[in-house]
Amino acid sequence: MSKLIALLVVLFLAAFYKIYKDYEGDRRKFFIDVGLLLFLIFATGFSKYTRVYMPLFLAHILLLIFSWGYYYLYLYGKVRKIIYIFAPILSIGAFFILGAVASQA
Question: Do the Cβ atoms of 7 and 61 come closer than 8 Å?
Answer without folding.
Answer: no
